[in-house]
Amino acid sequence: DAGVIQSPRHEVTEMGQEVTLRCKPISGHNSLFWYRQTMMRGLELLIYFNNNVPIDDSGMPEDRFSAKMPNASFSTLKIQPSEPRDSAVYFCASVGGNYGYTFGSGTRLTVV
Amino acid sequence: RKEVEQDPGPFNVPEGATVAFNCTYSNSASQSFFWYRQDCRKEPKLLMSVYSSGNEDGRFTAQLNRASQYISLLIRDSKLSDSATYLCVVRADSGYALNFGKGTSLLVTP
Lengths: 112, 110
Hints:
The structure holds two protein chains of two kinds. Chain A is an all-beta fold. Chain A has strands at residues 5-7, 10-13, 19-24, 31-38, 42-50, 53-56, 65-71, 74-79, 88-95, 101-103, 107-111. Chain A is globular, with a radius of gyration of 13 Å. Chain A starts with a strand and ends with a strand. Chain B has strands spanning 4-6, 11-14, 19-25, 32-38, 44-50, 55-57, 60-65, 70-75, 84-91, 98-100, 104-109. In chain B, strands 2, 4, 5, 9, 10 and 11 form a six-stranded mixed beta sheet that branches. In chain B, strands 1-3-8-7-6 form a five-stranded antiparallel beta sheet, with no helix packed on it. Chain B is globular and about 45 Å long. In chain B, 34% of the residues are buried. The A-B interface holds A 31, 33, 35, 41-43, 45, 48, 50, 55-56, 91, 95, 99-101, 103-106 and B 2, 32, 42-46, 87, 91, 95-103.
């Protein structure tokens, strides 16, 4: 089992550019979560999907953020346009039936 | 106010010491409780679940006090490899979403 796979590992982009983060959950896990981690705020839930359907997106900071899960094996988190305050580590996690979370290695985003 | 509060530390302790971390949570309807460990520049990983009766896993003991909405983690005989950030985590009353504390940093020194 390859675990939760996120790409890219690092992303440096200029303010105003579109950023797309990708996540492949563990096969058979039917819930997927996007979290953002900063020193100031810690880990914050942005959105989560159950069976590919968005269940709670109340953590998405604003309309510049959007997330999709077109199928059970792929999800994207898009920021358009990006701003310096979006700089953070973005984690994807998937969950199986025993509530066990598995996190991906994260994407470290820097917006300059 | 964050739903899960932790002392950020850092806790600097010598090898072999016993160290305890505490955490409080605000949602009395919370169902499940966990401690996660996060190494520097790595993803969080589950350390242990926390049960109402208290539970132990080797050198690690977790306790839950639902009346006080308080969770603790005790590490005995600290090892250098225990140096990490320890995240207190609470699952809300429905669904799988977890609320994370900001973490407590532990540094174990020789």
